[in-house]
TrEMBL record:
<dbReference type="Pfam" id="PF00174">
    <property type="entry name" value="Oxidored_molyb"/>
</dbReference>
<dbReference type="GO" id="GO:0006790">
    <property type="term" value="P:sulfur compound metabolic process"/>
</dbReference>
<dbReference type="InterPro" id="IPR014756">
    <property type="entry name" value="Ig_E-set"/>
</dbReference>
<dbReference type="GO" id="GO:0043546">
    <property type="term" value="F:molybdopterin cofactor binding"/>
</dbReference>
<dbReference type="InterPro" id="IPR008335">
    <property type="entry name" value="Mopterin_OxRdtase_euk"/>
</dbReference>
<dbReference type="GO" id="GO:0008482">
    <property type="term" value="F:sulfite oxidase activity"/>
</dbReference>
<protein>
    <submittedName>
        <fullName>Sulfite oxidase</fullName>
    </submittedName>
</protein>
<dbReference type="InterPro" id="IPR000572">
    <property type="entry name" value="OxRdtase_Mopterin-bd_dom"/>
</dbReference>
<dbReference type="GO" id="GO:0020037">
    <property type="term" value="F:heme binding"/>
</dbReference>
<feature type="domain" description="Oxidoreductase molybdopterin-binding">
    <location>
        <begin position="103"/>
        <end position="287"/>
    </location>
</feature>
<dbReference type="InterPro" id="IPR036374">
    <property type="entry name" value="OxRdtase_Mopterin-bd_sf"/>
</dbReference>
Length: 420
């Protein structure tokens, strides 16, 4: 994490902590924790911003699976899909090349001792965090299961292009377009577990919390990663997944159980879920107040919401790929949107926009494969572009709207190739 980003996070964290301390609904235990955090902030004032304290030292220390350089690119403690690794692949992204986004590092959790703990006044009897409703791994797997293809995407996917294409740099992990993937997830609908736990009609928010180490940024300990969902979304299509592409969840992708929230930014799909709070009043955390909100020009003072993913398109080509001049080739790619299936895709190879051919079997899924034929007319540098429109009419502008934290990039990406 850059100093600029850490400094920004620290300022936002101060605002969040101060707001929580003023909230009469915050418990004594929470106030003690807030006081500790505020003290740490006071001690840190006047010093240089610090990088993520919870990140282990070394090369990609927080990721368990091997990072094959032909499949994944290490990126600030994360790993980005190389799009050329999807050429010729099927609909889903194989686990070995599925991107990894960690706030700290991948924990190693024993499924035998793992428990899912639900608590809060939105459940019958108001179970507390210290005396929750519990499900162990075997009990969860014994509940009726469903399997569905769903897309998970980091909210910052495409952030690199704010600087490289729009001359509006923003801090944060500089993803190109590889912070995304579709997998077949198998698990139990969150709605099933909530009803077994005694969901009441008064519940309004549900907040899953991860078991990865607490996130420390800018000298502030924000606790474990957690972000609330409205109960309507939680009861709709959210999954507590324990399998990914036909095998138990790999450690980096949430073993033993993770949340999968179709269509919403990746921070909503909490990995290594351990606790879920269910409340009759709105819930808040740094991940929906100071982070993962839309700050900047044209946005409300407290930030605009960042929930549904934007529309994007990617070529299944290396960056600055080399093609043969005068030889026709098939260009392939994928487009996706959090608001609904893709309706149409267009490609521009330098002579104007034309429709791409959609792969018929993919219609209606979380992303759409497409192809088009192109013959580079001469040697030299060329720029490829692709854009899509989903069934709701949302599309991709030439330039994405800028926001301070670089979320939800949706601009048309200019993909360079060289014909030789």
């Amino acid at each position: 994490m850059s100093y600029d980003e850490a400094d920004h996070d620290a300022r936002r964290a101060r605002q969040w902590l101060a707001g929580q301390a003023r909230d009469p609904g915050v418990s004594r235990t929470e106030l003690i924790a807030l006081g500790t955090a505020m003290s740490a902030l006071a001690a840190a004032d006047g010093r240089e911003p610090v990088a993520l304290a919870a990140e282990p030292v070394g090369v990609d220390p927080g990721i368990v699976k091997p990072l094959d350089p032909e499949l994944l690119t290490p990126l600030d403690g994360n790993a980005e899909l190389r799009w050329e690794a999807m050429a010729g692949q099927g609909y889903v992204v194989p686990n070995d090349r599925f991107f990894v986004r960690n706030h700290t590092h991948t924990p190693r959790i024993d499924a035998g001792t793992w428990r899912l703990r639900l608590y809060g006044d939105g459940l019958r009897g108001g179970p507390t965090r210290d005396a929750p409703v519990e499900f162990d791994y075997a009990t969860l797997r014994a509940l009726p299961a469903v399997e569905l293809p769903a897309l998970v995407e980091c909210a910052g996917n495409g952030r690199h292009f704010f600087a490289s294409q729009q001359d509006t740099p923003v801090s944060g992990v500089q993803w190109r377009l590889g912070g995304v993937g579709v997998a077949r997830w198998r698990g139990v609908p969150l709605a099933t577990v909530l009803r077994h736990a005694g969901l009441t009609a008064d519940a309004v928010d549900v907040m899953p919390e991860g078991l990865d180490p607490p996130y420390v940024t800018g000298g502030v300990d924000l606790g474990r990663v957690r972000r609330p969902l409205p109960v309507g979304k939680a009861l709709d299509d959210v999954l507590l997944a324990y399998e990914m592409n036909g095998v138990p969840l790999p450690a980096d992708h949430g073993f033993p159980v993770r949340v999968v929230v179709p269509g919403w930014i990746g921070i909503s799909s909490i990995k290594w879920v351990g606790a879920i709070e269910v409340s009759t009043t709105p819930l808040f955390s740094p991940w929906n107040t100071s982070l993962y909100r839309m700050f900047g020009p044209g946005q409300p003072a407290d930030g605009g919401p960042a929930d549904t993913q934007s529309v994007k398109s990617a070529f299944e080509l290396p960056w600055d790929a080399r093609l043969t001049a005068g030889v026709e080739t098939t260009l392939t790619g994928r487009s996706w949107s959090g608001a609904g299936p893709i309706d149409r895709v267009e490609v521009d190879t330098g002579d104007g926009w034309r429709p791409a051919t959609l792969v018929g079997a993919d219609r209606g899924g979380p992303w759409q494969r497409w192809s088009t034929r192109w013959c580079p007319p001469a040697a030299g540098r060329w720029t490829l572009r692709a854009r899509a429109v989903d069934v709701t009419g949302r599309g991709q502008p030439d330039r994405a709207g800028v926001n301070d934290l670089g979320y939800l990039f949706d601009g048309v990406v200019r993909h360079p190739v060289t014909a030789v």
